[in-house]
Amino acid sequence: MSRFVWPTRVYWEDTDAGGVVYYANYLKFLERARTEWLRARGHSQATLAADAGVLFSVVDVKIRYRRPARLDDLLLVSCEPELDGAASVIFRQQIHRSGDSGELLAEASVRVACVSATSFRPRRLPPALSREFS
């Protein structure tokens, strides 16, 4: 699966009093990149919930913070998804500062499970989505 990259900017609301991105907000950047990866492939989470009856739930996150992102930084957030059985996906993700340095700020592994929208029990990925990994 090819690497997907989503650009974003650090806003005031993302930072602490010192103008540094608050550690939990990195998870928001990672989440948005995964959503945009899905959208870039023609899938919306709302449509998958309504039509296919599935939702996605984060079941495991490992993150390593390397350097701080700061107010007004332009970031590049990447996703490299890998199928992990019939009902989950592991996303290898990185956040880089955009520009000449391309400095690595954080890297993460996020495991996402496909669950039923009604029972929240694990469920196979819909065929249309499974094809994204072949």
Distance between the termini: 8 Å
CATH topology: Thiol Ester Dehydrase, Chain A
Radius of gyration: 16 Å
CATH architecture: Roll
CATH H-tier superfamily: Hotdog Thioesterase
What's the number of helices? 3
Please give the oligomerization state of what you see: single chain
* Low-confidence parts: none
The description of the largest β-sheet is: 5 strands, antiparallel
What top-tier CATH class fits best? Alpha Beta
Number of E-state strands: 5
In order across it, which strands form the biggest sheet? Answer: 1-3-4-5-2
What is the mean predicted local confidence, pLDDT?
Answer: 95
| Helix/strand order | EHHEEEEH
Structurally, the number of domains stands at 1
Describe the structure.
The protein has 134 residues and is an alpha+beta fold. It has a single domain (4-133), classed as Thiol Ester Dehydrase, Chain A, CATH 3.10.129. The chain is 21% helix and 38% strand. The chain has three helices and five strands. The chain has helices at residues 25-40, 45-52, 127-130; strands spanning 4-9, 54-65, 74-83, 88-97, 104-116. Strands 1-3-4-5-2 form a five-stranded antiparallel sheet. Strand 3 (74-83) and strand 4 form a beta hairpin. The protein is elongated, with a radius of gyration of 16 Å. It starts with a strand and ends with a helix.
